[in-house]
Amino acid sequence: MSIHLLFNGYRLQMIPAYILWIISIITASLKSYQRPAITIRILKIMGLVIIIGISIALPSIFPVFKLPQPSGPYKVGTKDLHLILDRDEVITTDKTDKRALMIKVWYPSNESVGKQDPYIDEGGRHGFAQKYGLPNSAFNYLDKIETHVYRDINIAKEEFPVLIFSHGYNSKANSYYALLSEIVSHGYVVFAVNHTYESTGSTFPDGSEVYFNYQYAQEIESDTWHMMEPVVEAFNNDLTFEERHPIVKKGLTSYFVRDMEERWAMDVVDVVNQIDDWNSSGFFKGHLDFSNIGVFGHSRGGGAAGEALLTDNRIKAGANIDGVQWGRIVNTAFDDPFLYITADWPEDKEDLNSHAYINKSKDVFYEAKVLGTLHSNFMDIPYMIPVKTLSQAGAIDPDLAIEITSKVVTAFFDKHLKNKETDLKALDSNYDMLDLNIFIGDSIN
């Protein structure tokens, strides 16, 4: 995968080439009075073949898939929270707009009966359809997915550590059911933030839907690639790490994604600001352990998680799942425990995080690679689209990828938020597809 594709976030190939063919066939048929009969028959046959092909292909591309059953002792409940902030919305053109977030909360429960949570809300579905040029109805089949997550059931009568999750660029919290439900089933409350206008889509309480803002994305990215061209050249020219570092450092601190991750980190901090209030009254009263807060994310959300850990000392531990850590970390180190999980990228991929995390953590820094994975293996996409050339997933079995990732993340937070005697290195021995190293100061265990 090229560095440019990685920087611009995870993107699937545009699927609906079929639609163009159908339009062409219809157009040809409408003008059939100008054509010989043999041509009309050929067009009809071609149209029939294409329609049959679509009917065969679409169930393979968009199957009714099965998500893994959470393995922890708790059932998983969910509810949505609407958070209106006293912070200007910089993405819209209306100067009076204030930042507003939809948050999907996942929490442990002892109840096994309830209304099952539908897979991806309407705003998310319609945003996905817009992203890939498909009609909104293309994702109606998601109604048939069993999520193993239940809406508005009672939270278990205990106090739980709090995790805040940040999704990938032009994705959303609802795209991580397999990973998040598994972690929550082991005793965590996860506040998954939808970064408005930069998530695929959000559904607000009044029924309005807000999608990814492609115009804003183009504006902030326009004419910025020149900042990264020297970085690409530094890797391609086989410079030593020491020779390459100042060049990569400049790219990490100047490219436009730095501002995005800082903006998303502010969303995370704003959620942290509300946790005490949510714990004082309402549904979550008395169930949130405000003294043990962690943050994690995937892709650009992983970078935002690292930035949030640097920003807010109320957050005690953080994890980045396969995201580039843009910004100031290259000039400093974490004060708290940090986990970095990477996909099994090809050797010729530019490893920016080897430079970003040069100073690692003053506490403890875990570096894990899940072998056989690619970027989408940490999401639900390999379940949704089992065709690897479309999903851009690695060779690993999707269930195994989620199992390893969730166990590493859960063990990390168990150790640093629950103070459990957890040996993360033992996980490395249990899984052939996991390569995990632990750095404490300048030493490695």
TrEMBL record:
InterPro entries to which the protein is assigned, alphabetical: AB_hydrolase_fold (IPR029058)
Record keyword S-adenosyl-L-methionine present: no
Keyword terms: Hydrolase, Lipid degradation, Lipid metabolism, Membrane, Transmembrane, Transmembrane helix
Keyword set includes Transmembrane: yes
Residues spanning the membrane: 12-30, 42-65
Protein name: Platelet-activating factor acetylhydrolase
Biological source species: Winogradskyella aquimaris
